[in-house]
Design goal:
The complex is a heterodimer of chains A (95) and B (335). With 95 residues, chain A is mainly alpha-helical. Chain A is built from four helices and no strands. Chain A has one domain: Non-ribosomal Peptide Synthetase Peptidyl Carrier Protein, Chain A, CATH 1.10.1200. In chain A, helix 1 packs across helix 2 and helix 1 crosses helix 4. Chain B has two domains: 165 residues, Cathepsin B, Chain A; 127 residues. Chain B is 49% helix and 13% strand. In chain B, the strands form two sheets. In chain B, strands 3-8-4-5-6-7 form a six-stranded antiparallel beta sheet, sandwiched between helices. In chain B, strands 1-2 form a two-stranded antiparallel ribbon. The longest helix of chain B is centred in the last third of the chain and has 29 residues. Chain B is globular. The relative contact order of chain B is 0.15. The chains are: A mainly alpha (95), B alpha+beta (335). At the A-B interface, helix 2 and helix 3 of A face helix 8, helix 9 and helix 10 of B.
């Protein structure tokens, strides 16, 4: 059964993204959990360079190294997908 | 019809993934990292001025096709290979092979694969995928970059297989012909590691192996001399990230995949040192990923002055030192 990511983890992730990318003009509460982070449709609109920054921040903060770019692409799709990934893989450090 | 019992699997890299799937289908249970490592896939080459490349570039694996040849040599596997001048003949041979339930790997130009979203299509003439069936005018395809089996229009496949340009596929097909009953995996792993160490440390060419990483570190500061303008330079600098992270490398220019190979090899050879070296290579890979990010960031911000390119060069030189040290230690473990 997949772990259900909680509100606290999602807030942590949003803070991590804003801090990592140095974004100061997007209020954290406007970032929607289920909307894509790339290509518009969310308060945050990120690009591929931001994606690498997020992947490296996940490794730095949560100790999970994502070594497969196909997985990485799926992981960084939304706040929900990042949260689910972190919750499921905290013990398994290299994916 | 679809070939029965073929198991589709995603993999990090198209060529090692296709080889792995074909070997698995032929009854040899082997992982993609083991295939990559036994085939001495890890490499580095820097091309500052080469006819084939209009702008300086680099490679992070051995040349296309070499993995297949190394796997044949080291595992005793036999692959059947075909090249065609006539597209009609090339397509009918493929039909004949799949009608005999033989999963067949095709070399294609990635651009013509109509199941790839248009924004992801680029001309790469050395993409490999496996055709496992045909229904009316559509081929059933196992492409390691996609989570499920895909369908590909007959005309698109023909265009992809017979695309022109550098390293054109020429309709190339291959499939497993035979797999030996007994395979000496331990010897194959040792040979694969020895060759990888030789390639990285001892090829007497200044642009190959660790020497190539050093040349890359020195010469990247000269890249502005090759660029038409800042836009062009930023595009080429950002390509460093694509070549390291986003072309089926498994991350960090295949270093993560080779680290996984060493971890698996450690169990098979009962050599705990290989596990330590695997962890060391993961950290070296993290350094390559830092380079990816740095290059992508300065490219995106058009921050491409001498100081930044100098910093980039210094980071790359750091990888050369780390890899030289790493491969020297690795070569001693399997001597």
């Amino acid at each position: 059964m997949p772990t259900t990511p909680d509100y606290k983890l999602k807030m942590e992730i949003k803070t991590m993204i804003l801090d990592t990318l140095g974004i100061t003009d997007v209020p954290i509460e406007t970032i929607e959990d289920d909307k894509p982070l790339f290509g518009g449709g969310n308060a945050l609109t990120l690009d591929s360079v931001d994606a690498i920054e997020i992947i490296m921040a996940i490794q730095r903060i949560y100790g999970i190294r994502i070594t497969d770019q196909h997985i990485a692409r799926e992981v960084v799709r939304s706040i929900d997908s990042i949260a689910l990934f972190i919750a499921d893989n905290r013990e398994n450090k290299a994916i | 019809m679809v070939i029965p019992d073929f198991t589709h699997k995603m993999s990090a890299h198209c060529e090692s993934g296709a080889l792995t799937s074909l070997l698995n289908h032929a009854g040899l249970e082997i992982s993609e990292p083991l295939v990559f490592g036994i085939a001495s896939g890890v490499f580095f080459g820097y091309f500052h001025k080469a006819k084939a490349f209009p702008f300086p570039t680099f490679i992070v694996r051995n040349k296309p096709g070499q993995m297949r040849r190394n796997i044949e040599k080291r595992l005793g596997v036999e692959f059947a290979e075909y090249r065609f001048k006539d597209p009609a003949l090339g397509m009918s041979r493929l039909d004949e092979l799949i009608s005999r339930n033989i999963p067949t790997a095709c070399q294609v130009d990635f651009f013509y694969l109509d199941y790839v979203p248009s924004w992801e299509r680029v001309h790469i003439n050395v993409h490999f995928m496996i055709v496992i069936g045909k229904e009316e005018q559509q081929y059933i395809v196992s492409d390691a970059y996609f989570p499920q089996i895909m369908k590909l229009d007959e005309r698109s496949l023909e265009k992809g297989r017979f695309a022109g340009g550098n390293m054109s596929p020429e309709g190339f097909l291959f499939h497993t012909r035979s797999v030996p009953e007994k395979i000496d995996l331990e010897t194959a792993i040792r040979k694969g590691i020895k060759k990888a160490c030789f390639n990285m440390l001892s090829i007497p060419m200044p642009f190959l192996g660790v020497k190539g990483i050093r040349m890359f570190a020195r010469k990247v500061t000269e890249w502005p001399n090759f660029a038409r303008d800042t836009e062009h330079l930023s595009h080429e600098i950002m390509k460093i990230n694509i070549l390291l992270e986003d072309q089926g490398t498994g991350g960090a220019g295949f270093r993560f995949m080779y680290a996984t190979f060493l971890q698996q090899a450690s169990s098979i050879l009962r050599l705990p040192t290989l596990k330590d070296l695997s962890q060391e290579l993961m950290l070296i890979g993290d350094g390559w990923r830092e380079i990816s990010l740095f290059a992508a960031r300065i490219g995106k911000n058009r921050d491409l002055g001498a100081e930044k390119l100098g910093q980039l060069g210094a980071m790359i030189a750091g990888r050369a030192d780390a890899e030289e040290n790493f491969f020297r230690k690795l070569s001693k473990v399997v001597h």
